[in-house]
Amino acid sequence: MRYVLGFLAAFAVSALVTPVIARLARRWGAVDIPLAEPRKRHPRPTPLLGGTAIFFSVTAVTLFVLSFTDLLPAPFLSLRQIAALTIGGAILIVGGALDDRHRLSPSRQFVFPALAAAIAVLGGVSIDYVRDPFGGQIDLNLLTVPVFGWMMSLPADPLTFLWLLGMMYTTKFLDGLDGLVVSVSVVAATVMIALALRPDLYQPETALFSAILDGALVGFLIWNFPPARVFLGEGGSTYAGFMIGSLAVAAGSKVATTLLVLGIPIMDVAWVVVRRLFWERRSPAAADRKHLHFRLLDAGLSAREAVLLLTAISAVFGLAGLFLDTAHKALALIVLALVMIGLAAFVIRKYRSTLV
To answer: Above 90 in pLDDT, residue 220?
Structure first.
């Protein structure tokens, strides 16, 4: 019952706060102008800063839970970790708001995700181990090194930092279609709830925190599903990846399951970055319409169809991740790669047929 209440509370706050944030964004001038770039196809100026509503909802409901119940903090999700995720999230939202208003350069944008990831690691969010395909686990806390009075665990802490950065930039680059990031993040948060409630893992506090995030995302999705009336903005797109990546770590280093849910976007981002760096010789942060979700539009799908297709793929592989052991998850990742190749082949074929 607590998970349902947490979900519903965050849902209600998010759904009510989002239009208020949208009005404030318009007054402040944080608005995405259509046709300002060739890749943008929305028909009218749309307010940004939507991620602020998600962050506010998660923070408000979490503070209520902390103040009036004994459900948080708990052994698997300490007060220090919750504080780190809140501070890191605030940094992303503030940095994102500055970018939405002033269009920061990619190097300046990078400062905020890097700070958020560093604070999360300092707050105790760490990938302590990973499971091998044979059922064992590999300890990542092999060495402790003092760094300015803080004991850094190697290679766990640097790997966690890179993991969180990767997750943030995955959702950032995925934010090209109305509702896409939020829909996929809803799938990921729902999978985290189910994982945390599994009898062999059972982390009720992680499940509750994931339910709060899930509710905030769904409440925002009402306003963001195509055609969107408000956009996530820079802060919202990175905050989604930050929270999903952090909760995956808190839920017992469920990196493989998260990779299954976000596998298509991750592979798409990796391919786009490699292409930009080595083929096109330009910045990996340069914007274009060569991401998979844009290619699906070029192949003839509507924005809503593309969002539903990519969300359905995430849901299928996320569901598989709940029931597969580590060895079979590795096989599922291979299948996911084949699905990605199949999608790419479909897009290329459809696109070429439109040129004939």
So the answer is: yes
